[in-house]
Design a protein that fits this description.
Blueprint (H helix, E strand, L loop, with lengths): L7 H14 L4 H13 L3 H14 L4 H13 L3 H14 L4 H16 L8 H17 L4 H13 L3 H14 L4 H13 L3 H14 L4 H11 L7 H15 L4 H14 L1
Helix pairs in contact: 1-2, 2-3, 2-4, 3-4, 4-5, 4-6, 5-6, 6-7, 6-8, 7-8, 8-9, 9-10, 10-11, 10-12, 11-12, 12-13, 13-14
Length: 258
């Protein structure tokens, strides 16, 4: 119940109590680790998942959860190898393949030159392509497939997959932002502006979207582009004050306007 009402920290506390009352229960331990994961208490979650897989190495849910924790911590190489243990338990499980593909993708794109890790990128692409056939209306699959294509310098297929993801979840800021970035790289500024306009309507104060909107407006020939860009950068800086790039973009735009 507590997980359903978005109280992961309270849920973790409840499951911890339940675990003390029934210490041998693997099910309670998995739920406790899941709750810690939802509460972003990754060290605690990892510790419980490790305890579960030690005592129950065939627990697929625990291997999947442990992989998710490692990904959240940015330990993508470890995640890639961890999820293979889950894959050995159920080679046809879509969730396991999704985690494996995401781990490989995130491992590659964390580097300044992802193309130097084409093996991981191509593996992720292959996995996401298979998942896209199995789950054609899954926005997450289409989004990550698009990212894999882009990492392999295939912008045409990348933007096609990102469009599918955006249409499936039009208010998802992260997915829309990635689509805009690729559209700008393809010099399709008008389409990028249309996507950004819709994203702003869905979440007017979103800092990354406003910052991206400002950058894209500056690529146009609009007579008032500096004024509009400054408004966007100001919203980004106001709502994301700890990001120095927002302030830098705001300052640069103000200088250009004067």
């Amino acid at each position: 119940f507590l997980m359903r009402v978005n109280s992961p920290k309270k849920a973790a506390a409840e499951f911890a109590i339940a675990g003390k009352l029934e210490p041998a229960s693997i099910d309670f331990k998995v739920k406790l680790a899941d709750a810690f994961l939802a509460a972003k208490e990754y060290d605690a979650s990892e510790s419980v998942y490790l305890e579960v897989v030690k005592n129950d190495p065939k627990n697929l849910t625990a291997w999947q959860g442990l992989t998710s924790v490692l990904n959240k911590q940015g330990r993508f190489y470890e995640a890639m190898h961890t999820i293979r243990k889950g894959l050995a338990l159920d080679p046809n499980n879509p969730s396991t393949h999704l985690l494996m593909a995401k781990s490989a993708l995130e491992y590659a794109v964390q580097f300044p030159n992802p193309e130097n890790h084409a093996g991981e990128l191509d593996f992720a692409r292959s996995e996401f392509e298979r998942l896209a056939k199995l789950l054609p209306n899954d926005a997450e699959v289409q989004y990550h497939l698009g990212r894999a294509y882009v990492g392999l310098h295939n912008k045409k297929d990348g933007v096609a997959s990102l469009w599918k993801a955006h249409k499936l979840q039009p208010n998802n800021q992260e997915m829309g932002q990635m689509l805009v970035i690729v559209l700008r790289a393809m010099n399709d500024v008008p389409t990028a502006l249309n996507v950004l306009s819709d994203l702003i309507k869905a979440d007017p104060g979103n800092p990354p979207t406003n910052d991206l909107y400002g950058q894209t407006i500056l690529q146009t020939k609009l007579p008032d582009k500096n004024t509009k860009a400054i408004e966007c950068f100001a919203r980004a800086a106001k709502n994301g004050p700890r990001n120095p790039l927002y302030w830098q973009h705001l300052g640069d735009a103000q200088i250009q306007a004067n």
